[in-house]
Design brief:
Elements: H1 2-30, H2 35-50, H3 53-68, H4 74-99, H5 103-111, H6 116-146, H7 158-169, H8 173-199
Helix pairs in contact: 1-4, 1-7, 2-4, 3-4, 4-6, 5-6, 6-8, 7-8
Organism: Fumia xinanensis
GO molecular function: transmembrane transporter activity
Subcellular location: Cell membrane
Amino acid sequence: MLEASLVTLQVFFLTLILSIPLGFIVCFGRMSKNIVIRKVVGFYLLIMRGTPLILQLIFFYFAPSKMFGIAIPRFWAAILAFVLNYAAYFCEIFRSGIESIPVGQKEAATILGFTKVQTFFHISLPQVIKRILPPMGSECMTLVKDTALAQTIGVAEMFRLAQTATTREFSIVPIFVAGIFYLIMNGVVSLCFTRMEKRLSYYD
């Protein structure tokens, strides 16, 4: 169970580390003045947010071998699906945060001689981070639970092992233990985001 929990943690942290930067890139594409880029990004968001994650996992595991003859290991196929899926959701969270900043602040910064880059990183970004923390916390807690979907393509994470043990031993104890693990992990995630919100409370 401990080994399987490490796989679950790997899926969680790798998804966050890769999907957050990708979400920012997609966000800027979504807000681009170039209509072609906006349309491409919009189509990507529609696919990722409009289809179930479980289908995306199956697609990214089986499609490369069927279409291109390239076999992707189960674990990395799961990471690819999770990253692309969560980047789409993070993109919309980032976009809503950026667009919530009053235009007057940018105009005032321009008058004071700030460049666009300085305005974004020193004025807009700190406020954006404060505003997106609650929805980001919710998405991270959802990610903890969604890691169980990796078992769909045979990744030996916590839920898959618990399910197998329950079937083999005719006992619900493994499922109960897995549930406690997910609960503890979500408790830690919730605590971390609560503390971050308090540290940024000086913007209130």
